[in-house]
Structure formats: C-alpha cells, structure tokens
Amino acid sequence: MGDGKRTYVVLLGVPGAGKGTQARLLEEKLKLPQISTGDIFRYNLKNQTELGVLAKSYMDQGALVPDEVTIRMVEDRLAQPDCAAGAIMDGFPRNLVQAKAFDTMVAPYGGVRVAPLISLDDEEAVRRITGRRVCRTCGAVYHVDFNPSEVAGKCDLDGGELYQRDDDKPETVRHRLYVYYKQTAPLIGYYYAKSILVELDGAQPIESVYEQLVALVDKSS
C-alpha cells in the first residue's frame, strides 16, 4: 500500500441518518473513495471472486457472512490504487470485531482520523426511510414528504408506478434499527474512548452537516 499517513473517516449513525449522502459529497470534495460493504459485496458476488464465492456459499444457506470474510473483502478493497490516500467508510466497521480488525489494517498509515456520529431521532429515521418511493420502470427516487412527485404515485420522468421497496417498510426499518443498536451502537463508545468521536445533528440540512464534516476532516489532518 505504500508509506505515509492516510485519511480514514468512519461515518456512524442510525439507518436514515444520511451517511451515504454525506459519504458521496465527501468523496467528491476530498478525492477519497466511499467504501461501503454493500458495494464491496455486490462487486465480489458479480465478479465471482474467491471471496465472493465464499460469501455466496453462506448466503445460499441463509447464514450470515462471517466477519472474517467481510474483513478480507474490505482489506482487498483498501489495497486498490484509488485508496492510496485513504477512504471514507460508510457501513464498515459494523461491529466491534470489524472495528478492531480495521484499526489493525490502518494503523501503519496513522489509523482512523475521525469518527463522526450523525445523530438522528429514531422516529425521524423511520419517517425518512419509509417515505421513500421508487419508480418501477426507471428507478428514480422520490420521498412523500421531502421530494414528492407532481402526481401522487406516478414518476415525473416517465409516468411509471412509484412503489415502496420491501426494505423501506416500517417493520423492516424498525428491525434494521434494532440490529443497529445491538451490533453497531457499541462503536460509539469504542471511538469515544479513542477521542476521535464527534457528534453532529443529523436533523440539520444536508449542506450544514456536510460543511461540518469537511471542517472536522480538515481539523483532524
């Protein structure tokens, strides 16, 4: 991977807090890749890599993919040339085992610089996710409160039907929150103990959160 310090940012927050949106904005500003486990899994499964085949063997049995497989996928991703200056982590680490492994990975390059926690009320998180609607034909995304279509239930672009994805339904979202508190919330204390946790109000406008995140990263550099 080369020598020298790198910038690793770990974004924390409940589902719906806006981590993905902020990671994409930071990627453009900082010229650092956004690394999400979802993207990594899709890449490995699609390209049938050794790790992808291994992960699929667990998924086909209805079992969770072990941490060690996920960790190896992330390690491979961080070895790619576009990660030479660091990365913005969105959805990884997801638990304490992964966090400790990630620390070992990035320790030679200065470790994690900052772990912003984008805080958001649980009910607001549920409202954000359950209000999402997607066009069946073109995939355009709307929100019943924040970005409604001109005609209810129809896409502005092609008139396609707007629907709610199964993983955006209330019972699924509440289960995702349960899993977050069970597995991922302990990372708040983990990074607090390392003095790199900084809490931001996720109810603010996207631009405000983004500006604060940029300032945090600059300060940590």
Which helices and strands appear, and what pairs or packs with what?
Layout: E1 7-11, H1 19-30, E2 34-36, H2 37-46, H3 50-59, H4 67-78, E3 86-90, H5 96-106, E4 112-119, H6 122-130, E5 132-135, E6 141-143, E7 162-163, H7 170-184, H8 186-193, E8 197-201, H9 206-220
Parallel strand pairs: 1-3, 1-4, 2-3, 4-8
Antiparallel strand pairs: 5-6, 5-7
Helix pairs in contact: 1-9, 2-3, 2-4, 4-5, 6-7
Task: Provide an overview of this structure.
The protein is an alpha/beta fold and 221 residues long. It has a domain of 149 residues: Rossmann fold. The protein contains nine helices and eight strands. The strands form two sheets. A five-stranded parallel sheet has the order 2-3-1-4-8, sandwiched between helices. Strands 6-5-7 form a three-stranded antiparallel sheet. α2 crosses α3 and α2 crosses α4. The chain is globular, with a radius of gyration of 18 Å. The model has no long low-confidence stretch (mean pLDDT 94).
Are there runs of 5+ residues with pLDDT below 50, and where?
none
Query: In one word, what is the shape?
Result: globular
Q: Class of the domain at 7-120 and 186-220 in CATH?
A: Alpha Beta
Please identify the structural class as seen in this structure: alpha/beta
* Strand elements, count: 8
User: Which architecture of the domain at 7-120 and 186-220 would the CATH scheme give at its second level?
Assistant: 3-Layer(aba) Sandwich
Helical element count? 9
CATH topology of the domain at 7-120 and 186-220: Rossmann fold
Give the strand order, joined by hyphens, for the main sheet: 2-3-1-4-8
Helix content: 40-55%
Distance between the termini: 19 Å
* Radius of gyration from CA coordinates: 18 Å
Strand-residue fraction? 15-25%
